[in-house]
Amino acid sequence: MTRKRRRLIFVLAGMSCLGIAVALVLNAFDDNLVFFYSPTDLVQKHPGTTKRLRIGGLVETGSLVTTDGGKRFNFRVTDGKTDLAVSYVGVAPALFREGQGVVAEGKLGADGSFTAATLLAKHDEKYMPPEVAAALKKSGEWRPDQEAAAPGAADAPSASAKP
Amino acid sequence: MIAELGHFALILALLVAIVQSIVPMLGAARGSRPMMDLAPMAALVQFGAVAIAFAALTHGYVTSDFSLKNVVENSHSLKPLLYKITGVWGNHEGSMLLWALILTLYGAAVGAFGRNLPPALKARVLSVHGMIGTGFLAFILFTSNPFLRVLPVPPDGQGLNPILQDPGLAFHPPFLYLGYVGFSMAFSFAVAALIEGRVDPAWARWVRPWTLVAWCALTLGICLGSWWAYYELGWGGWWAWDPVENASFMPWLSGTALLHSAIVVEKRDTLKGWTIFLALLTFSLSLLGTFLVRSGVLSSVHAFAVDPARGAFILALLVIAIGGSLLLFALRAPALRATGSFAPISRESALVLNNLLLATAALTVFLGTLYPLFLDVIGGDKVSIGSPYYNATFVPLMVPMVLVMAAGPLMTWKRADLAGVLQRLRLAFVGALAVALIMVIVTKGHEALAPLGIGLAGWLLFGTLREVAERIRLFQAPWEVVRNRLAHVPRASWGMSIAHAGLAVTIAGITIASGWQQESIQTLKPGESITLAGDIYRFEKVEPLPGPNYSAEEATVTVSRDGRTFATMHPSRLTYPLQRMTTTDVAIHTDGLSDKYVVLGDPQPDGGWIFRIYYNPLVPWVWFGAIIMVVGGVLSLSDRRLRIGAPVRRLKRTEAELAA
């Protein structure tokens, strides 16, 4: 086999690998990108009830109701402008409580409430999830004293609680 | 005083690194022996200076010298001594210093043990290594200096994140860095070869041990990290496709490809450009991984804005290292001529195919990791990419790779007989089909992935066994012959077989662990019990447990099956008053085949406690397999051939000169 032909085969194999990869990635992007919405975004953008999505904000003070032996959580997530009813069944992360930032992944119900499959809250009390910080900034509810805590959390790799 | 000594040593190391990057390179260009001979000495001095700096910082941590800003922010006088020491690299500045320490250690190792390298190549390799050192030491000194003082001196430190106070995590960064930074050696060799314009089998033979060391360390580092995430974070899983994990996994994928393509260069004198490219790519991904994790960009892309100097420096380093090396590659690669040629069906082709699949897999991981960051930077939507993405992209690419992996070692170099190879693999195929069928029966045909995964693991394991059997002519020759052959199989071959078998074990572990995990969340009062996967977990009691810098509650849970109690587990909950943090200590009972995994949750007003209990079948195999792979790598490293073999190039050269 000549060098040219071998190179051709090599390039073709590489190209087809790349092609397959691009097809796989695009296909996966279509189904598996999880978009983040603040409660205000949800009202404005109507993402629909079929896709998994993430929402985040502060757990509204006075809204948390725990039932079913501490396993069912009903609470409201707020960005200061809009709030959203969220329900979750499972074990909450250690620092999940009223007044703290939270990110929930799940689906929006037809009634406009959100059913979370996963709650994400960092282990550090001072830490604010970056999406939540950005959402609060956007709605003008950002308190600067929280700012110092946001960076530096990178020293705790993969510290998100996955119930 | 000692901190100033460390600071001074670090500055000295930077100056030496600058000299090391310039003088030997000029010497190699001019053929000046004294200038080239400076390189090993400079590498040793540079290592010594960084070691002194590292020792000085460690001293600051051990003696709790709170006049150092870095110590104040990351240590506390109440912390156990072990975590004071490991706290040195538990933060950005210290981890960068550890990085530099390991980098200069590799350089010094080449300087000390690279006696059989041709002087010009050695000078160029160490010079390139000096350039990397210059970049990193300047980065540390100008933007991340751990020796900065603070006034007034605070009475005590701010402590270390309690979840980082753990032996698994404490020793995870050093191994990870040994791996990341080890690929810098392959990078330096690749750049030196591009400057020389020559890549030959001898070159590959010199590069391979360094790549192998790095690969083993990285495998172990990833394994430790995954194990830490499993038992420390208490979420029952062992791999989340978290960007931090991906950052270490990308260089592993391309490093694995590099390891294999270097074999082709060594044995067949071809695939040169590709091998060089992989060497550049692997180290570039290592650099990217280090910075992704350490710059804070993952928790917020705007962290760059908090410290613009650091962000700009990082970007500049990445651009120079990656852009510069790729430019050099584009200029010089066409000059790399292959002498060996091979047919589309040959061991070379099998390795090429695996290489392409590994590189493509690395690319999909790369896109999944960086796309959300990219989108955030350009101000678009905030998205996250989780395991479904990787299951849809990474897994399909690994299936053909494993298929080829079993057949590759049975193929001959240059031109192989595919029908013959498949014929020899028919027993392996039957075995794989059998285990896959068993899985179909066990899952009652509901699961497609489990039979596939187990079938692949079986195929790889049986294929590997077949290769070993053929090599020693088991069942084909008299026992004396088999014994004789057994004694003479090179260690590198054993290494390959063991590493491949290790991957089979890991695949089996991953498949079963992802498919059969069972989980139960219950509120239990003392005396109550729940049943999961046939085991009865009985909550006996909960007791307070005082600790040095935390307070804790420890539960006692007994596990029984068929009326026989076989384990007593103690999950606990720790509260660190200083950080106002609560962590959980998971209790794990393992029998090598499955894990019982108990997490203690919050107390309830009615006197009950929340328990989260997982049954994780075959999870330990994920790490067993990784450790087997490392054993294979180490065995291969001990092969005589990799340590001795210097004369090859000189011989070839005289031939070439004679021909010319």
Please explain how this structure is put together:
The complex is a heterodimer of chains A (163) and B (660). With 163 residues, chain A is α+β, with helices and mostly antiparallel strands. Helix content of chain A is 29%, strand content 27%. Chain A has three helices and seven strands; from the N terminus they run H-E-H-E-E-E-E-E-E-H. Chain A has a five-stranded mixed β-barrel. In chain A, a hairpin with a 4-residue loop joins strand 4 and strand 5. Chain A is elongated and about 75 Å long. Chain B is an alpha+beta fold and 660 residues long. Among the domains of chain B are: 160 residues, no CATH class; 100 residues, no CATH class. Chain B has 23 helices and eleven strands. In chain B, the strands form two sheets. In chain B, strands 3, 4, 5, 6, 7 and 8 form a six-stranded antiparallel sheet that branches. In chain B, helix 2 packs parallel to helix 6, helix 6 crosses helix 8 and helix 10 packs antiparallel against helix 11. The C terminus of chain B is likely disordered. The chains are: A alpha+beta (163), B alpha+beta (660). Chains A and B meet through helix 1, strand 1 and helix 3 of A and helix 14, strand 1, helix 15, strand 2 and strand 8 of B. Strand 1 of chain A pairs antiparallel with strand 1 of chain B.
Spatial strand arrangement across the major sheet of chain A:
2-4-5-7-6
Q: How many runs of DSSP E, i.e. beta strands of chain B?
A: 11
Strand content of chain B: 5-15%
pLDDT < 50 runs, ≥5 residues of chain B: 650-660
The secondary structure category of chain B is: alpha+beta
Name the shape of chain B in a single word: globular
Query: How large, in whole angstroms, is the Cα Rg of chain A?
Result: 21 Å
* CATH fold descriptor of the largest domain in chain A: OB fold (Dihydrolipoamide Acetyltransferase, E2P)
The domain count of chain A comes to: 2
